[in-house]
Amino acid sequence: MTAAKQTLEQLKQRVSSLEEEIIRLKDVEKELCDSKELNHTIFFNISCTVFLTDDHGKFLFISPNVADTFGYSPIEVETLGNISKLLGINFFPRNDLGEHGESRNVELQVTDKLGQGRHFFVNVKRVSLKEATFQYSCRDITDHKKAIEMADENEKRYEKLLDSVTDYTYTVNIEDGKPTSTTHSASCQAVTGYSADEYKADPYLWHNMILEEDRSTVTEKINTLITGKRSDPFEHRILHKDGAVRWVKTTPVPCVDEHGRLIAYDSLVTDITELKESELQESRMRHRLEAQWKIASLKDADLQTICDHLLSQMVEITESWYGFYGFFNEDEMILTIYSWSKGVMSDCAMHDKPIRFPLDESGLWGEVIRKKKPLIINDYHKEHAGKKGFPEGHVPLTRLMVLPVFSRDKIVAIGAVANKAFDYSDYDLKSTSTLLSNVHVLLERQEVNEELLKKNRALKALSKCNEALIRSTKESDLLREICKILVKTGNYPLAWVGVKKDDTEKTIFPLVQFGDASGYLEDIRISWADNEYGRGPTGMAVRTGKTQVLKDIALDETYFLWKDQARKRGYASSIALPLRTKNKCWGTLNVYATKPDAFDPEEIELLQELADNVSFGVTAIRTRAKQKTAETALRESQARMQAIYETVQTGIVIIDGENRQIIDANPVAAKMMGLTKKELIGKTCNEIFCIPPGGICPVLDLGKTAENAERHLVKTNGEKTPILKSVVKFNLNGRKCLLESFLDITALKQAEKEKGEMQAQIRQMQKMEAIGTLAGGIAHDFNNILTPIFAFTQMLQEDQAPESQAYQDLGDIRTSALRAKDLVSQILTFSREKEHELSPVKISPIVKESIKLLEASFPATIKIELRVIAKDDVVMADPTQIHQILMNLCTNALHAMMESGGVLEVRLEEKDRNHTSSRRYLALTVCDTGCGMDKFTQERIFEPYFTTKDVGEGTGLGLSVVHGIVRSFGGDIIVSSELGKGTTFTVYLPLVDQKAVETLHDQETECPKGYERILLVDDELAIVKSMGRILQSLGYKVTERTSSIEALEVFRVKPQEFDLVITDFTMPNMTGDRLAQ
Q: Domain PAC spans what residues (predicted)?
């Protein structure tokens, strides 16, 4: 505590002595001012040196004291001749001084005789004294000037002394733990700019001048002191009266009473602004040197890494939030941003963040390029020339500093920082500019290195691609390897080969690629048509056949369809190189880069050379592939022709045109001749073919052609075989030869014969079909005749006693009518106009009746034996078709025994179809002792149109129809035969339960009667009468009509009088179905 008090006392003594020195300096200043005034008074009261001159300045009078003022004697002055030579000016104010007595004052510095400069106050007055017209009164004011200069110097020394005062004290009185008043020493003005009186007038002035950012810290320190705790010296910033920010160090010393209570505290305030500035400068210098050292240590890094580090240091040493660094192109018209500060991309909300900026679209930063000097704006919110505003989502700016980087008088790059918390200063400008200049040397060297490295990579890639061209044998493998080399060795992010397709959309299909792991090529659509999909570099390259370079994907409007996808993957520029074969472009080699304008002329030339080499390589591979394919095709063709030659079923011989000998033959030719190939070679053509008339060969002797000419081949045994012969002339190893082919047409001739027979059968069938149609018409008419016979016979029988002769005669009539009905049914079946309805049928009566009919038509040489063994013979069948089966089988047996006679046995018996089934079958067996059949005939016996009879004796349909009928009954037919011993046909038909059939018969009841009213319509009068009589006999009231039109009119007049309408289907004018509708 004692040491602190001693320090405080020493400080107070120092402050007191400084205040006394200030008071003394003020007294000196007052004395100097008084002295200045006194000198002026003395000066104007001493004698002057006077000269009188004429209008031309010629001396007319010289004051005697001229030697005291100018050092020249009057005579010496007079020899000068003119006052201008004495005063050193051409001063003749005759035009300025018009009237008599008018004067003018001027101060001049004149060199005296000793060469010393002296100051004079000259009064020029127009006078009229004889010849004299001007009076010059010159007063030496040199000492006066020196006194004034000394006073000014003393004043400056005083001001400097005041400025050098960096400490002052103030006292704060405390009552009840609260500040009540403050007293500031006089030297406070030197530190803060405010006087003690101003502090006294405003108790809060000291608090308010503390920078807002530091107030909480100062308040905390003071509160610590007021609570009685020790407070160490602290530093903070204040706002000087002139608006400048000053750093001060406050050292508080508490004062307590005898009870230890705080009653006041004194504070020594020291201006440490220069110290802080020095520290700041030192820190900045250290940061700058560290920044340069860090960047210098990146000599082996790539250009992007150096740019990123440079921008990071720019932002750090200027204490900025944002920044960017970019390069200009050759004509200083496009800026490409190489590095953004980290905060920009995260804070920027623009949808499309560009990296290329045209100068003609720029705002304030463009002024740097246009004016070629740095730009600092610390009030960005205000209006500025060249300011264009921000696009939507741009980072807001408050302060901005942009600096150009020069190289050989051209701006090659710019660096910019923004949004510093305080204003950018000249120091920021100088330090950042120095950093940029120093680093740009490294960047230029690095850029040169990168260019060399890029060219080396391109040359290396070209070399490797040429090696691949030599090695590759497959087109797709070559193209894939080229793309891989460009990415791996050329350091490009993506390379791909597109092939044009001749589809409707003119698609360019990515054949191979390397580097696209993100699916870029899957997301885009490219065409070589002249539309929006074909105006990119790839489509243009295919369409024009010229190399297309896309310098900037972000700015090129032709790439707008693919821009977003490309930029998302980091692609900034690209080149499309056409691939040609015979000057026809078939595809493109596409290479992408991560930087805009990445392809310089040398690199483009190397890539074009590569594309030409690839085109040549692909052409060579395709040529080799075509040759290989052609050779393979030739070998395959030779093998195929040899195989055909050896295996074809046509005989082929090659004949020498000179000696007409056979020099080669295929196996079929030798076989057809009955010789070996060795035996056949050497024979003449006349030995194997029938000799033409006159022994002249039409082909060799007459020059005719032979194609499919019918000839005969003469075998070794003399047998002649019909052949179709064709002859072709050709050259074989320089010899004129003939190739003769001949086809055995024996089978063809047989087929033609069979074809004639088949056509005859078809004509027979057509006849039968016509007969069937005619029979069907007759059968319908016959049915109409039978219907009234049945009806009237039945009615007459009902009126007769069963035991009477008339009843029996009527029964015979009805039986005959039934047989006629069956005959009509057979006719309708034959004409296919009646569908068969299956019902339980007893077979034995039908078989017996059929045998009776056959016995009358069979010759006496054939004996018919009938054996009915079966007890149950009821099957589900159609009686007419049963009759048809039996007639067909028996007729075939008749033909088989026609020449030699024999026995026809017909059996009807129960048999098991097989031993595994419990179902019972009725077997109808027809067995003859005729000629029998071979196996081939048995296999085809049921085929339609197959027949062994002569033409006109059968259609070949009988057994196929029988087979179909049996299968429709659910049965089967089996044939067994042996040549010379006869044939047996067995038809198996499933039996029906006899008890079920009897039950159905038991359920039959007498025909019911009624009383309803019926309208009966039929165009046959006999049918209408007979049916009308039957219905009336059953109690019904019948109205008869033979015209459908009349019947309709009757019904329309009184429809309520009819309960039922019975109508024929086929009638003239209106059919039955239409009448019913």
A: 232-284
